Amino acid sequence: MSISEKDYSAIAARHGVDLAKVKPVPKAERIKRLTEILARTDVPFVIDPAKASKCLADYVADQPFGVGSFGDRKVDLGEYSAFQMYENYTHEEHLSWACLVADQQHTKHQFACREYLSGEAMFEIGDCVIPDFYLLNARIYQQTEWQLSTVSMIIPAELFFTCHSLKFFPVTTFMRELEQDYLQEPDIGHDVAGHVATFTIPSVAKVMVNHGLARDLIYVERNARIADAGDDSTKIDEIKSWADELLLYAGRIYWFTVEFGLVMQDGEVRDFGAGILSSPGETIYSIDSPESNRVLIDPSCDHDLLRLATTDYLISEYQKTYFVMKSFDLLESLTPERILRTAKKAMELPHYTWREVVPGDDTINVGSVVTSPNEKYYRLLNNQPLDECLTRAAIRNLRMYATRFDMSLLNQFRALPPEVPSEIIEWFRKEDVGDRFKIETEDSNDPDT
Ligand SMILES: [Fe+2]
What we know:
Blueprint: H1 5-14, H2 27-38, H3 49-60, H4 91-111, H5 114-121, H6 133-144, E1 147-150, H7 157-165, E2 168-171, H8 188-191, H9 202-229, H10 233-259, E3 262-265, E4 268-271, H11 274-277, H12 280-288, E5 293-297, H13 302-309, E6 321-325, H14 336-348, E7 362-365, H15 375-381, H16 388-402, H17 422-431
Parallel strand pairs: 1-2, 3-6, 5-6
Antiparallel strand pairs: 3-4, 5-7
Helix pairs in contact: 1-4, 2-3, 2-6, 4-12, 7-9, 9-10, 9-14, 10-14, 13-14, 16-17
Bound molecules: fe (ii) ion (FE2).
């Protein structure tokens, strides 16, 4: 269905966008701007003149910018590599960007933390047209040393974190449909308008890099084990699954901080997570909705970090539990070694779900969708409705309890989880045969959304 100019005017007006400004700057003007940006020396990370010249020449020649063109680091994106073809964006796509960022600006200025807002101001994110990655990439590098790496779709967690260890941030090039508030698949409205400002918050940027370095530690161990496994393909597959599982649990820490983190600021709860702030609807919801739980977290406390790594979630709707950092400074404690250690503990322990308030939680509020830790088991037993997250955690935990689980490990939590009645475990042990309780794959829980 085609949309008329009249419809565009009405849509723009609904979001307070001046339709006349939804017009990309001509290439000649962008060349002039890029030339000025590349020549800047009053920035924390000055671009080497030779690299700047090459960048400008590529731009003039309509070449997509080379990933890693400003520094010495490189990353191989393989089959996920993509390019931004700036001239191909339609008027409707630019308008979709303009409407989304106008809404975002409104909610960000109500609910984002100070550091996020001042970071965003460096990059002209609130402009009325989709950013040209050449210009944006140069500004990001000069301010933060991060560089964009364009990808075609959600990339595997391993590659995502590899990019992070090298200060590359993977960004897609497509723009969501007009007036779409939330989508699972990351687009420019999320990757750029949500994430870029977070590179400027030192403790958050450090958490991002450290997840990349945690991935490196996992892969060193993985590859050593594979080398020891010789030709045993079954064992090699198990080792690969083990590494993937560790990345999944490390990814939860990333999810509840970089993507969906909140922070206490001047006695109020404020957003800094890119997943939240790229959705105007979720930005309001994350602070105001009585539906979700909000739990205060000290990321420097091992038990609190384990709470994040052991909490399963879904990406298909707004979050049901938000974790509020006591302060940004405490995120500095998330070293690669700590992330890895916590992921390993999470592997051995039962998991909570996104709806639960659990023993030891320092709750700011308990949401209306809260469930108790044992409710998922009773629902499974009685064939009552469960969302995918509760189903997944219930089956995983019961399988653990029903096999060889060492109950003494539970004392690693801040407070002991409620005991699961033995009759439920017995029931599960008898029922868990064949495909009856096949666990859904957790692939959908990629950290980047
Ligand atoms: Fe993201």
